[in-house]
């Protein structure tokens, strides 16, 4: 979904914003999904039979064992990415100067692997969609052109910035010294080291 407002076409802009040849405010929002990492039967509780663990039953008898496979995750969904984009386009000084400002923000619900559960449950992990990150970026671009004494010139300046932060990791906070792919409250792919005095 996208919307745009060409402010320069409004009557008040023609009266009070004569410096601008074109002025447009635009915004967009969209969501898409990704099924990567989700198997066909993750919504069913499966039972594993055998696998080399016979169960003694009766006098000298052994039968095949059966146990619950990985726990079913009732709250697991596709990975989703919601993107919000806001921008401002401006042309002024008889179209000699152009400015473009863009602000981007995303909210990502990610499948971040398996969550470990207590050993007394009989299971060792549970897959779920539980990580949420919030990347953001901004971009500023300024472009100027003109001519003097038969000489044409043009110049362009571009500034950009990108950040991200893990805002939810299902309540887990495990990290190691060195490289960590994910930790709640920090950017993705963060490196932790010792702090020394002196």
3D architecture notes:
The model has no long low-confidence stretch (mean pLDDT about 80). By secondary structure, the chain is mainly beta. The strands form four sheets. Strands 1, 2, 7, 8, 9, 10, 11 and 12 form an eight-stranded antiparallel β-sheet that branches. The longest helix is centred in the first third of the chain and has 6 residues, at about 10-15. The protein has one helix at about 10-15, and strands at about 1-5, 20-35, 45-50, 55, 60-65, 65-70, 80-90, 95-115, 125-135, 135-150, 150-165, 165-170, 180, 190.
Biggest sheet layout: 8 strands, antiparallel
Q: Tell me the quaternary state.
A: single chain
Q: DSSP strand (E) fraction? A: over 45%
Morphology call: elongated
How far apart are the termini? 55 Å
Count up the helices.
Answer: 1
Element-level helix/strand string: EHEEEEEEEEEEEEE
Instruction: Please count the beta strands (DSSP E, at least 2 residues each).
Output: 14
Question: How would the blueprint of this fold be written?
Answer:
Blueprint (H helix, E strand, L loop, with lengths): L1 E5 L4 H6 L3 E15 L12 E3 L5 E2 L5 E2 L2 E3 L10 E14 L4 E19 L10 E8 L2 E13 L2 E13 L2 E4 L8 E3 L9 E3 L6
Antiparallel strand pairs: 1-2, 2-7, 3-6, 4-5, 7-8, 8-9, 8-10, 9-12, 10-11, 13-14
Brief summary:
The chain has 198 residues and is mainly beta.
List keywords for this structure.
about 5% helix; 1 helix; eight-stranded antiparallel beta sheet; about 200 residues; two-stranded antiparallel ribbon; mainly beta
């Amino acid at each position: 979904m996208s919307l745009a407002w060409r402010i320069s076409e409004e009557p008040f802009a023609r009266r009070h914003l004569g410096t601008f040849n074109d002025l447009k405010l635009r915004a967009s929002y969209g969501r898409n999904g990704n099924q990567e990492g989700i198997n066909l039967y993750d919504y069913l509780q499966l039972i594993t039979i055998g696998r080399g663990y016979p169960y003694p039953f009766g006098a000298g008898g052994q039968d095949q064992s059966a146990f619950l496979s990985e726990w079913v995750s009732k709250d697991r969904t596709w990975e989703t990415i919601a993107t919000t984009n806001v921008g401002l386009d401006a042309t002024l000084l008889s179209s000699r100067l152009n400015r473009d400002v863009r602000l981007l923000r995303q909210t990502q619900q990610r499948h971040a692997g398996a969550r470990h559960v207590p050993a007394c449950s009989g299971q060792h992990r549970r897959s779920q969609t539980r990580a949420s990150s919030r990347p953001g970026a901004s971009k500023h671009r300024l472009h100027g052109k003109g001519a003097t004494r038969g000489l044409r010139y043009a110049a362009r300046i571009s500034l950009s910035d990108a950040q991200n932060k893990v805002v939810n990791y299902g309540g887990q906070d495990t990290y190691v010294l060195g490289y960590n792919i994910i930790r709640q409250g920090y950017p993705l792919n963060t490196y932790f080291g010792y702090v020394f005095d002196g």
